[in-house]
Every structure is written in structure tokens, then in C-alpha cells.
Specification:
It is a single chain. With 401 residues, this protein is of the alpha/beta class. It has 2 domains: 98 residues, Urease, subunit C, domain 1 (Roll), CATH 2.30.40; 290 residues, TIM Barrel, CATH 3.20.20. 37% of the residues lie in helices and 23% in strands. It has 15 helices and 15 strands. It has an 8-stranded parallel sheet. A 7-stranded mixed sheet has the order 3-2-1-4-13-14-15, with no helix packed on it. The longest helix has 18 residues. The two termini are 24 Å apart. Bound molecules: 3-[(4S)-2,5-dioxoimidazolidin-4-yl]propanoic acid (DI6) and fe (iii) ion. Fe (iii) ion binds next to loops.
Length: 401
């Protein structure tokens, strides 16, 4: 069945630029785009449905390529404490931080985790997201990581969104492995990853490479284990210090290295050579009131593809709007609105290994698009949050959220 969508302008994001088609039309057949171009050149045909998009600007469906959407509990109390001058270290020493979310996640049932994550995910979908990556990482034992990854699979099955799961067991050291980080890494590599991969729960593997998390040597052991299982890797790198985790990620041809405030030009060169995407997370930068900016000029100079994501998590980026991240990427990191939009479409798709099928509006790709009632594509980064009037289409079918 063919459907014609017309009376619109398109920012197709082909090649990572706006690639604008004025007065455009789109022909979809099932879940795919069959044709896209100027309305004056629409192929003649018998269209089962015709939609007038009322002059909307059409972009690819937004892709949030870095989230920790599934977790138990809430850390707004820590937010209040920090505003009263209590430091992260003091909060962590008192059992707060990631450890408190781990306790709450371990205590929650699968249904409770699903229900709370569904609410957060629907906020992202109402903001134009049609694909999302969701990480585990608040379980830190096999049963709890499995519980989170099963919830992630269930979210993709029950909501109108394409979901990629990432195992982030190497997020933090669980209490039962206190002072024994190497033993925990061994447990991840020899027991957790093989079991979870065998159950079909893992699309990629991630780790937190940081002085307060895991060393490059420990991360490399996780990468080798992922490689043995045929799983691609990603890495939280250079968020708070420079350990050259992003160069390590590039050596393993990681899909992406993420955060990157402290990355060096040498890291950027390594990432460019490997095709590893730089995923910038302005929500965490803003929420932590960081001051170290990612090296935008080095990333641009060496042609590193740049993605932007929410990093939705309870501790450092409780962000429920990917579009607000567009504004933060421009306002905080000085990205252009066009770069930022590429960062939540084609480059985000590349960071998930989905760019052959998603991330730009071209014939043969999936028909995931949003028709925004806006004046210019830059409006998506300009307005601070809020609910822009839009129509969301996923796999060629209009979504009612
Ligand atoms: N970097 C972060 O900012 C989050 N995890 C990570 O690897 C922090 C997660 C949390 O505080 O709950
Ligand atoms: Fe993260």
C-alpha cells in the first residue's frame, strides 16, 4: 500500500546536512520511503492514502543514542543536597550516588522498572524520538542486569520506538566487589556478558572509563570479551579527566565514545581514523555545572562525526527532552543548529550502527519522520523545551502518543 505525504518542506539530513527539499513530497510503501523529492515531480500512482502536512517542516525521526532510561528510585534529594553545598564525594561516601540507584533498581520488580521507564520514554517520544538506545548499568549483578535488559527489550516491543540495548555492567563497582575491581571485571567478562549475549539481550557493550570508575586496562578486558561475542562496543570516556579512553575505543573500532569534555586532539585523530562517533552529552555538562568544554574545533578539523544525546539518568542528566539537548549543544558547546540536528539524526544512527536504515530521509530507508509546525529547522534547537505541534510517523504509520 502506497501513501503520499505532501505540502511540506523536508530537511532530509542526507550526508549530515539539512539537504533541504522545498515544497516536497514523500511516498511511503509499508515501513519504507519509496520516493522523496519536489512535489512537482511526484510519481503518478494509485495512492491508498494522501496526507496534507499543512506546510510542516519534516525531519527524520529523532534518535536518542545514549540513555540510561531504566532505573529504580529517584535522586532529586541529592540535587537539593548539592544545591546546599554537599559535594558528590560526601553524597557518595554516605551511600548516595550510583550506589543508591543500584539498591533501588535491585529492589524493584521488572514491572515496576518497566512502568517507571515507560513514563520517561513516552516523554522522549512525545518530543519526536522514534529510535532510542537504552543502557543497563544499575543492576551490577547478573540477575539485576538481566532484569534491566529484559525491560529494555519489552519497551521496544510495547512502544512505537526502535530500541537498541547496551550492556553497561562496567558502570560502577557493586558493593559485593568493594576493593576488588579486577575480580568484578573478570565476572563481567567470563560470566555476565556471555550469559546475557546468549539470551539475545545485548546489542552493544559499554563501560565507564574514569578515575572513579574503571581504568583503560580494565575497560580493554571488557572490550576483548565483547569482541569475542561479536558485540560492538561504546565507551563513556573523558567525562571528568583524560585517560585517553576515547583513543582506546577507537583502537577497538567502537561505535562511539561519549561525553568527551577532556578528550585531546590525538584522541580526535584516532576517532576520525576509526570512524568512531563522538557523542556529546550537554545535559550532564549542564547539570553538573561542568566548565571543561569538549574540543569542538578538533572534532570538526579531523572530521569526527558528532552526535548529541540526552544521557537520561537519575544522577547527572535527568533529561526528558532530546530537543532541549539540541539547545544545550548549541548554547553550551557552540554547535550550529544544523550540526545539532545531524547529531540527533544521521550521526546518532551511526553511533548505533543503524545509519544504513535510519537517520536520514532517503529512498530505501525506514519511513521514520516528524512533521513539525515550525518556521525553520533551527527552531528545533531554538525553543527551550515545550511541546511543539507535530505529527510523528514511524515505519510509515502515524503514531498517536
Ligand atoms: N557518567 C555519568 O554521568 C553517569 N554515569 C556515567 O557513566 C552517572 C550516573 C549516575 O550518577 O547515576
Ligand atoms: Fe551515560
Amino acid at each position: 500500500m502506497k501513501t503520499l505525504w505532501q505540502h511540506c518542506h523536508v530537511a532530509s539530513m542526507a550526508q549530515g546536512t539539512y539537504s533541504i527539499i522545498e515544497d516536497a513530497a514523500i511516498v511511503t510503501s509499508g515501513a519504507l520511503i519509496e520516493w522523496i523529492g519536489p512535489r512537482s515531480e511526484v510519481p503518478a500512482g494509485n495512492y491508498a492514502e494522501r496526507h496534507d502536512l499543512a506546510g510542516a517542516w519534516v525531519t527524520p525521526g529523532l534518535i536518542d543514542c545514549h540513555t540510561h532510561t531504566v532505573f529504580g528510585g529517584n535522586r532529586s534529594g541529592e540535587f537539593e543536597q548539592r544545591l546546599q553545598g554537599v559535594s558528590y564525594a560526601e553524597i557518595a561516601a554516605a551511600g548516595g550516588g550510583i550506589a543508591s540507584t543500584v539498591r533501588a533498581t535491585r529492589a524493584a520488580s521488572e514491572d515496576e522498572l518497566f512502568d517507571s521507564a515507560r513514563k520517561r520514554l513516552k516523554s522522549l517520544l512525545r518530543d519526536g524520538v522514534t529510535s532510542v538506545e537504552i543502557k543497563s548499568g544499575y543492576g551490577l549483578d547478573l540477575a539485576s542486569e538481566r532484569k534491566i535488559l529484559r525491560v529494555i527489550r519489552r519497551l521496544g516491543a510495547e512502544l512505537p520506538v526502535s530500541v537498541r540495548s547496551t550492556c553497561l555492567a562496567a558502570h560502577a563497582l557493586p558493593p559485593e566487589y568493594a576493593e576488588r575491581a579486577d575480580d568484578y571485571i573478570e565476572h563481567i567478562c567470563s560470566e555476565m556478558l556471555p550469559a546475557l549475549a546468549a539470551e539475545g539481550l545485548v546489542d552493544a557493550v559499554d563501560a565507564f572509563c574514569e578515575y572513579l570508575a574503571f581504568s583503560p586496562e580494565q575497560v580493554e578486558r571488557v572490550f576483548i570479551a565483547a569482541q569475542r561475542l561479536g558485540l560492538p562496543v561504546k565507551l563513556h570516556a573523558e567525562q571528568l579527566s583524560s585517560l585517553h579512553g576515547s583513543s582506546l575505543a577507537a583502537r577497538y573500532h567502537a561505535l562511539s565514545a561519549d561525553h568527551l569534555e577532556f578528550m585531546t586532539e590525538e584522541d580526535a585523530i584516532a576517532m576520525a581514523r576509526a570512524g568512531t562517533v563522538a557523542v556529546l552529552l550537554p545535559g550532564a555538562f549542564y547539570f553538573l555545572r561542568e566548565t571543561q568544554l569538549p574540543p569542538m574545533e578538533a572534532l570538526r578539523k579531523h572530521g569526527v562525526k558528532i552526535a548529541v544525546a540526552s544521557d537520561l539518568n537519575p544522577g547527572t542528566s535527568p533529561a526528558l527532552s532530546l530537543r532541549l539537548m539540541l539547545n544545550m549543544a548549541c548554547t553550551c558547546f557552540r554547535m550550529t543548529p544544523e550540526e545539532a540536528l545531524a547529531g540527533v539524526t544521521l550521526h546518532a544512527a551511526t553511533a548505533l550502527g543503524m545509519d544504513k536504515t535510519h537517520g536520514s530521509l532517503e529512498a530505501g530507508k525506514v519511513a521514520d519522520f516528524v512533521a513539525w509546525q515550525i518556521d525553520r529547522p533551527a527552531d528545533l534547537a531554538y525553543w527551550l523545551g515545550g511541546d511543539l505541534e507535530k505529527r510523528v510517523v514511524r515505519h510509515g504509520v502515524e503514531v498517536d502518543l
